[in-house]
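Hey, resending since the last one bounced:
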Amino acid sequence: MICNSFRTLLPLGGFIFLIWFSGCSDDIPQLVLSDGTETPVIPEDTLILILKDMHIVQAGVDHTIDKPSERPEHYRQYNRLVLERHNVNPDRFFSSYKYYQENPALMDSIYVRVIEKLNMEISTYQKSGKTESSGRMQKTPATGVPGIKRDSPFGIPGKTK
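The structure tokens again:
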């Protein structure tokens, strides 16, 4: 009697097993770059680190370059270095950024994490007491990041002029 029940449930268990594992596959979206090659979208964790570094670059340029008209070229130069540091080519970055921009809920969750990481760095920096650089006092915010522009002038798609 038990043996017959087991035989009846075995196919059902196998079916549930297949459904379970087919639902667990990591379908990473593929992007087609300008040269026609396919590449996976940049993972969220990597994009978060890239965006964090780009916002630090933007703040550094804004703080050190007095003429606003000279800043865009500095953004481009330093952001190329950020992408090199993360081993990501610009075409893949822009295509991935566009993918996330077209998924607003995903982009919102990414920026929440970018802001959290920036706040952690600011907090660590403030606790270290390092507020002087190059003989002049740095502007250190009292608390966290007051707000980050999503459409920043550092060459990310969606920039408005």
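Residues 75 and 107 are 22 Å apart (CA to CA).

Sorry for the duplicate.
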